[in-house]
Amino acid sequence: MNADPLTRPGITRKTLIDEGIRHVSGEEAVARIGFDVSGLAIPYHTIGGRPLEVKGKHFHRVRLDEPKGGAKYLSPKDSGAQPYIPTSHRAQPILILTEGEFKALALCEAGFFAVGLGGITSGLHDGKLLPALAGLIEKKAVSTVAFLGDADTALIYDFANEAAKLRKALPPSVRLILPRVPFTGPKGIDDTREAMGESFNGFMQEILAAAVEVPEKSN
Fold first, then answer.
1. Which residue, 156, 153, 44, is CA-closest to 104?
2. Is residue 1 packed enough to be buried (19+ CB in 10 Å), middle (13-18) or exposed (0-12)?
3. Cα dist. 153→2, 35, 91, 179, 218 in Å?
4. I want to staple 190 with a disulfide (CB 3.0 to 4.6 A). Which of 43, 106, 136, 218 is the partner?
5. How far from the centroid of its chain's Cα atoms is residue 192's Cα?
6. Which residues on neighbouring strands pair with residue 68, listed in sequence order?
7. In the prediction, which pLDDT does 197 show?
8. Where are the alpha helices (DSSP H) in 63-120?
9. Global pTM?
């Protein structure tokens, strides 16, 4: 673990603090998620910025200091998938869906509108958008959803399959595009921002403009 655990690539310490993210011990983690682990506790919020309550408790996920059984993150048992909506988000016509809270934060800090999913298959339940995600798209007048994976997602069948499911679940009036992170750079978009510095925003505009659109109905 880093000497200062409150660090993540592509995100300033101030943003992490402003979002309520903090390092917790095992005892604190038990109170938040029911597991005796240490790591970064990430509080979730509603569209309006209020604490998201699941089963009467403020919902958190914890990024573990040490992976547990292959898992890097843990959340309360039977709490279901929840979209991570940064409180600092600024609504725009393009909403970027990405995997993980920190990637969403890196994008929001750079001025984009992004939401984090617990995994690439975590935006839907029973073929429908998560209610909070559907509500966000409607309330913020989103016209385009950009489904953004890591540099290797072009090789992952589950990502393509999920994109097809997402297209079916989105309203017909909302476009779905697939921006691609090049194989030649860092794997994740947060690492990409860390590496690119001031040129990151121009890079993002380029991959959004070049993104492939998923048609509403495939022939």
1. 44
2. exposed
3. 29, 31, 26, 11, 20
4. 106
5. 15
6. 71
7. 96
8. 101-109
9. 0.94
